[in-house]
Amino acid sequence: MRLFSISEAEYYTSSFGGSGGVSQRSLTAFCKACILPNRIRTLSEGTTIFDQYRDCLLRDVERSLFVSASHYRRALDLMTCSAAPWAHVTLYYGNWHVAHALLGLFGCAVVSDRVIDVCKGRPGGQVLRIRGIGTKPGQAYTTYRGSHRRFWDLFYQAFQGARATFPSGFWSVLTPISGDPLWQIARRNDINYDLHSSIQLAQDFDLRFACGAFPACLPSVMNTQYKVFELLLEMSFYYAQSFGIATDALDGIRGHSPLRAKIRELIYNEKASGLVRRTRKAVVT
Question: What is the pTM of this model?
Fold first, then answer.
């Protein structure tokens, strides 16, 4: 995938127009309704379909940033022995969402079996292209199957050539962990679906965890996942703020406040509902 440069991305993301209709829904819904039936291969600046797609993508970016911030915050609540496996899985999915947001900030998206990326980046004449995913000529190349495997391979490919244009402090999260684009998925699957591995992680967490030494005290795979997610989150929010991302995607949740205000109010300041006392705890205790 080809990304916009930083200046091209800033230009692209600065023109949210508030298109209505299907542009207010997901990228998948937009592609199914507007792109695939019409067999559209390119989206050119100055056309209605380009503006509608851009609005849809920027809304999706803001949603992804909000959800990833929520996962980051809620993973901290799960830092207990019994919940440690789910904390790791939560960190993975937070990183999944924020990686989608970062791609969107630079003009790219992976939507089902399609990639939408940059054909021409010059402001005033920007063009996006829609391609299939696979190994055939002209497709976004990957040999992997499965949506998560394909996504991470394409994500790392996209940033490989552009890595040097970003601050060096971000380079580590733009490179596959241990050279393996599937590292995160393999660890998530192992912990999420293999209960022996899940309980082993809980045991390791119980032996190692010390609040004053966080996050270094986390079991090794969990520590790696946490650090990768935190840095990618920092990078994505840095560019979202730098570009001035502002859409109406979250207006249905308590009004029209900006993304950061919603994160403070709904993720960091909102208290839990205290439902434990309302459940049949005696059944399990």
Answer: 0.96
